[in-house]
Amino acid sequence: MTNPTPTDDELKSAAQILRQTHPSLGISKLFAQLKTDHPEWVVSEKRFKKFVTPSTTTTSTSTDGNGSGADGDKGGDDGLIAKTGLDPSLDIGSIAPKIKVKMFNVQGKGKGLVAKEKLQVGELVWQEEPWIATNDSDLTPYLSSREMCSQCLTLFPQPNPPLSVPCKHCAESHFCNRRCYSKATEQGTHNDYLCPGQNRECKALLSFINQKKARDIQGVARIIALWRRYRDLGDEKRAGEVEKRVWGSMARISQRTKEGERREWPYIAESRLEEWRLTHLLILRALNPSNDEDPESYKSFHRFLSTKKKNIPPLSKEEEERWFSFDSFLELLGLIGLNQESSGGLYALHCHLNHCCEPNLQVRNLPKTWSPPTSLPADLPPPMTAASRGTNKLSIIVKKTIHPGDELTISYVDQRLSREERRVKLREQYGFWCGCNRCVREGKED
Length: 446
Ligand SMILES: [Zn+2]
Ligand SMILES: [Zn+2]
Ligand SMILES: [Zn+2]
Hints:
Layout: H1 8-21, H2 27-37, H3 45-49, H4 92-95, E1 99-103, E2 111-115, E3 124-128, E4 132-133, H5 140-144, E5 165-166, E6 174-175, H6 178-186, H7 203-212, H8 215-233, H9 236-249, H10 255-259, H11 265-287, H12 295-308, H13 317-324, H14 326-339, E7 345-346, E8 354-355, E9 361-365, E10 394-398, E11 407-410, H15 419-430, H16 437-445
Helix pairs in contact: 7-11, 8-9, 8-14, 13-14
One zinc ion binds at residues 167, 169-170, 172-173, 190, 195, 197.
């Protein structure tokens, strides 16, 4: 095993070679090249900078393209390190007794999961329902034609179920049974704040989400609604748990910082910021309208609140700032991007899993009728189509034997992509250059 942190000498000579071969490249691009040449190295752009001589061209062509918003806030690699921490409300021992959380002392890596004992191929390590359910826009037609449960995303048996349970207040949501209905109310999926039959002010937001296929906004709205409902009803314990999970545990980064890394950012900055501002306003109107700016919505929202509980205390300055500021909105959006599992939303334990291009776990959505045997075939068929799909409950299954102390990994990207494609995608969507064994090996083959 080579040490993943290069010595000053190693870094210096790599920097010199890079500078000789690319005399006019800016430091960020040179750094990207370094990460491609040495995927196994753990090194920050800041440290790399110390060893690089400036480019030979004096005028910069890539920045200042557009004044508004593109303020040159390109934090390099340091800027893309997500904030993350432990989640005290998660009882891992009861969900998955054979694994534990580990904080890695590697820059930018954060937490992960490791095995406490040997895990055999095909073994079911744990199953988990989403903490915040979100649905892919492909499923919207099924949901709006009342063919699918809004909470667990199971298709109702055909022909149309006489027994599905509709929301009592609106025509938007249907559920398998009372259990799914009460989960949806309890969690953010369809709680009072996001039920148009109860809170009229959420209508514009919900139709925006459907029209724009804005699943990430759906996630943000559901997180805030989940917190706000507990908070307003006076359930301090659960409001506190949501708060800790969101702002203290799940990996998070401002969407603006993340997109600021994109090469085309200077050209799209203005329109992206405008889009985010508009969406942010829709969220405010639905979940915290201001009396000064939007008195009509304010009145209507507070009428709705008064049906829930008498004398709900107004949000404190800190609460306003933490949950409803524009910066917080961008952080929540970034959190969704880093943690959302495409088949179901945000999962409290699954979101601890780190990426590897040859993972030792696979994640499946099995049908509701499936009951766990002790083991499953190592390679189940790929995720089902909507017509034969499972629920949003995840089953985490061992793909390759895992020994005690090994880290458990999944793949965030399609494993059939080439090394270059995978690495670019991971960098753009998750903010890191993959340095897994497969990337190192395939890098040497080239
Ligand atoms: Zn259901
Ligand atoms: Zn409803
Ligand atoms: Zn990799």
